[in-house]
Amino acid sequence: MRCVLRPALLLAVATLAAAEPRPLIIAHRGASGYLPEHTLAAKALAYGQGADFLEQDVVLSKDGVPVVFHDTHIDTTTDVAKKFPGRQRTDGRFYALDFTVAELKQLNVSERFNAQTGKATFPQRFPVGIGSFQVVTFEEEIRFVQGLNRSTGRNVGIYPELKAPAWHRKEGRDLAAVVLPILRKYGYDAKDTACYVQCFEYAEIKRLRGELGWSGKLIMLLGGKGKGPGETDFTYLQTDAGLAELAKLVDGIGAPISSHVTGKSPSERQVTDLAGRARKAGLKSHPYTLRADELPKSVKDADELVRVLFDEAKVDGLFTDFPDLCIRHLKR
Q1: Count of structural domains, the chain
Q2: Is residue 93 included in any domain, yes or no?
Q3: pLDDT tens sequence across 228-237
Q4: Which of 4, 246, 263, 283 has the CA that lies 20 to 30 A from 122?
Q5: Is the pLDDT of residue 245 over 60?
Q6: pLDDT tens, residue by residue, 132-166
């Protein structure tokens, strides 16, 4: 027998769906569990898997162009040591800021590895040194995402992180002052656009809202407990008083999964109230990072971690190297 829902019930269902949107799936450096991080191939795969947002970590090149790298140094994801021997700093590291875009484009991007041993950080992932992957500028990636949105009819967003802005200023560069005009150019400077800007430095978050007049969505990244870059007090910012203070500036927080789920085994697992307290303060919670090959001891597998975060911790979004695993859970 066919079941017919009355109009009033349909309206109630629609209202409930609107009030309880599903959690966002944020591709951490793209589908980096399957392809080298921050390559267009990894971003295309994440897009195809159904991610809602694609993350871009942004640093500056020598000629002042924002490029997409997770770190200020580039010797653990490229062959820079082979292509440009002798260009390292006194600490032995190679930095994006010491190379022009033209030079960076000569590099091959690979799966993350140990710069001393050459061994892959995640041995079961895409093989180190296989394939041909190029460094991408921030603007190139924006055009790529917007091109895919046009051809698919979707509206997948971007989620840039300003990497080490205080370090850049010590080097005589202003990262935010270069990145924000690019975001404005491509229409990401309002709260209703598909873009979150994130940063670990509270002083820079304040500067973005104040001195630089940024009106788009902001996320304060929290590195667990203790002090972070620029004397950011992560412990305080996770208190009720800290969350209330943050709510005056940002739209949400990004804390490690360990701030939401704790325990040395599944039987000892505890779910914290961080997401609930953040929501009470008017903030979204987008924890990082679900990795199927680097799970916390409090869960038996990735499916369980997704379920706990979405259904018990009730986070609003999740960074993951494996977007398809999260999409699979939501489809269930």
Answers
A1: 1
A2: no
A3: 887 899 999 9
A4: 263
A5: yes
A6: 999 999 999 999 999 999 999 999 999 999 999 99
3-state secondary structure 57-116: EEEECCCCCEEECCCCECCCCECHHHHCCCCCCCCCCCEHHHCCHHHHCCCCECCCECCC
**Choosing from 70, 168, 260, 286, which is the catalytic residue?**
70
The answer to whether position 99 is within a domain reads: no
Active-site option among 28, 38, 73, 260: 28
Rounded distance between C-alpha atoms, residue 17 and residue 54, angstroms: 24
What's the Rg (C-alpha) of the chain? 20
Would residue 162 count as lying in a domain? yes
Q: Using pLDDT thresholds of 50, 70 and 90, give the confidence band for residue 225.
A: confident
Our answer to whether residue 168 is catalytic in this structure is no
**Is 70 annotated as catalytic?**
yes
Full residue range of the structural domain in which residue 289 is found: 23-72+136-331
Say whether the peptide bond before residue 289 is cis (omega within 30 degrees of 0). yes
Residue 173: burial class (beta carbons within 10 Å; 0-12, 13-18, 19+): middle
Helix or strand or coil: residue 173?
coil
* Domain presence at residue 67: yes
| Spatial separation of the C-alpha atoms in residues 74 and 190, rounded to whole Å | 32
